[in-house]
């Protein structure tokens, strides 16, 4: 059975990065190696994996990632 993972990284600049992957170990290693120079985490290394949730349905993983990103971008106080 194939798994898909939604993960949260704590970046060196105290920000969070939320992503989805089918290989959590490889993806965290890629973030820390700076494999993609255009990636959000490239200039924020090292990163630390602080949370992950596994899914068997990739669509559920993507929907969960979207929800987490929406929560992350909500203002701290709504006046």
3D architecture notes:
The chain has 79 residues and is α+β, with helices and mostly antiparallel strands. The protein has helices at 24-33, 58-72, and strands at residues 4-10, 16-21, 48-55. Strands 2-1-3 form a 3-stranded antiparallel sheet, with helices on both faces. The longest helix has 15 residues, at 58-72. The protein starts with a strand and ends in a 7-residue tail after the last helix.
Topology (SSEs and partners):
Elements lengths: L3 E7 L5 E6 L2 H10 L14 E8 L2 H15 L7
Shape summary: globular
Which structural class should the secondary elements be placed in? alpha+beta
DSSP summary: helix tally: 2
Stretches with pLDDT under 50, minimum 5 residues: none
In the sheet with the most strands, the strands line up as 2-1-3
Features:
alpha+beta; 79 residues; three-stranded antiparallel β-sheet
In short:
With 79 residues, the protein is an alpha+beta fold.
């Amino acid at each position: 059975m194939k798994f898909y993972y939604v993960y949260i990284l704590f970046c060196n600049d105290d920000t969070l990065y939320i992503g989805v992957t089918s290989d959590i170990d490889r993806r965290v290693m890629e973030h820390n190696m700076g494999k993609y120079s255009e990636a959000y985490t490239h200039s924020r290394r090292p990163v630390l994996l602080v949370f992950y949730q596994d899914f068997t349905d990739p669509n559920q993983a993507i929907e969960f990632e979207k929800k987490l990103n929406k929560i992350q971008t909500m203002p701290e106080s709504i006046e």
